[in-house]
Amino acid sequence: MQLAPSSEVHVESFTINPKCVSFGELYGQVDPNTLEWSDGLFASAVRTYAKELFEQDNKTSKDRKSRNTSSSDVLSDSTTPSPPSSYQHNFMVDNWRWIIMDGPVDILWVENLNTVLDDNKTLCLVNGERISLPDGIRFLFEVDTLSQATPATISRCAMVYMDPVDLGWKPYVRRWLSQLPRQLSREGRNHIQQLFDNSITQGLNFVKKHQKLLNFQIPEMSTVMTVCSILGALINFMQGNGGLGLNLETLSEEDIGKTSADNESTGKGEDNKWFLQKNPEKLTILLGKLFVFSYAWAVGGVLNHLDDYDDSPSATKDKSCHLVNVAHAFKNLIHELFEGAPCGVSLPAGNRMIFNYFVDLQTGAFVPWDELVPSTESLIHKGLNTSSGSESLQLGGVLGESNTTDTTSFLRSGPICSNDTVCYSFLISLLLLNKQPVLLTGDSGVGKTILIQSILKKLQKDGGEMVNQGTILGQVFLHNQAKTASLLEDVNLLTAVFGGDADKSTGGDSLSGLLSSMPFGVLRRMRSPSHTSESSGILTCTLQCTACTTTAYIQAHMLQNLVKKGKNNLGAPKNKSVLMFVDDLNMPTLDSYGAQPSMELIRQFIELQGVFDAKTLTWKVQYINHGVIRLCVYHFPVMRDANHSYVKQ
């Protein structure tokens, strides 16, 4: 490439996915009714860049000509011949324009660039216009495959193959570590890096070995990014709830004193504090357990039915021999990688899989998901107490959730509470609330749509995105406090049953007073880092895809819940976040070249946080302040030639 003598080079880029728009919206088209010509996105960008570079070139030529005229005497005495003007012009390019075509290649749109890519350097439009290109414009094509490219296109381009083996996952992890909260100590960062180095390669090899259990091929980087996403979400939560221990490298004495004062003001007891508040020196121990939790779901969670396996005689009867062997192999892999030196993670004892546990951030221990599922006896007791009209269980003012809900409405409110529903609800909500898109796949009829609708319904409630008792995240993060409160509730039940009317009122008042005075009164003050004093919440919208769904329909559905923030800026309403559920994204039919435009539009939106307006030829940015569209996508169980670039997101 032609560069200027100086090291400073100005580059502007224009990125577009050609499959997100129609052919007319890309190059331009004639209105059949008015016969008026309207520019396309690509043609408009080329014309604008060409005009800018030609004007700058003319200005540079005039300045050079004036300098040459003023120094003509010096040049006439020189015996060294000057190089041709064309050589000087080509060598002095210091202002570049890059047009990046990030999407599948097909004959329909790429063949129109043959005159652009050869020596003619001219863009020919349908209306007869010819746009000459200056030397500063370059075209970059980023594609997954060249199966639809013609020899004419391939011969006009220089090919660069990015082998994923050469780059690997380590640069991404190093960049992710550098973006973690600054409160995380260097010891914690080094420990996370060591965990990645000791486990990721073995995990990727395990998935590759048992790839027959995958619904579709998953890029290796997608697995690594999932580990980082889950672990990063948990670290972000710890940063706003109890901190990440004392980082003496970044905190001053004043900050350390303030942190200690905040910890003391949180409550007088020790049980109400988070694990790192009580044990700041055990940061690496907690990070190791959180990494195992993230690693298990990112590596083993993508294999079909592996998380359902339970190493017990009753469970192995219905499992195939192959699945049993894979489950044993994954369990042994977890123990070999993380138990003992150098990781030193204390894994739960017993024969159960690691999928059956979560990490309690208040005790720092692995806790079975079973403890979050109410038992049948407790549901019966609550139902009997509700039907009798007893007022002894009115703990809603303290715990943030009323217990007077009718039993039948409770059963109709969503899927039956089980280990799977609690676990999947927590993982999906954790990622979505941390601005990470989620892709949910599975067999038909397993309840994916019902689960997502139940999650959206809970998140839409007032304070549903906060960490309070009764919310999805609060059910897990505040498990230890809720467990103690449940014991007090059982005591109140006994008091209500065996005591008189006077005892009931006394018992209820004493319980309320006890809950208010005990350390667990802090339940009402627990908030996520993004909490604000003003009204906040989540808006949800559902897009049901069919075989006839077009990119224009998807884009219009995305924009309908956004408000204008500026000239070309759109975003969610104030203090709101928009969560979009795309159902059956795999349903839209493929085009004649094997691409799926609807999937390409979603991928462009996730990567670039915006879409193009083909009518005004402007880029609509939709990531404004804290208003963001988060995507929860559900696919059919069988994906047709899944796009690795999309799955990676």
From TrEMBL:
A Gene Ontology BP annotation from the UniProt entry: microtubule-based movement
Gene3D superfamilies reported in the protein's UniProt record: 1.10.472.130, P-loop containing nucleotide triphosphate hydrolases
Annotated signal peptide: none
Domain of life: Eukaryota
GO CC field: dynein complex
InterPro entries reported for this sequence: DHC (IPR026983), Dynein_AAA5_ext (IPR041466), P-loop_NTPase (IPR027417), Sigma_54_int_dom_ATP-bd_1 (IPR025662)
Domain Dynein heavy chain AAA 5 extension: 274-371
Positions of the UniProt region annotated as Disordered: 57-86
Pfam families recorded: AAA_7, Dynein_AAA_lid
UniProt GO molecular function: dynein intermediate chain binding; dynein light intermediate chain binding
Chain intervals with Low complexity compositional bias: 69-80
The protein, known as: Dynein heavy chain AAA 5 extension domain-containing protein
Species: Hucho hucho (huchen)
Record lineage: Eukaryota, Metazoa, Chordata, Craniata, Vertebrata
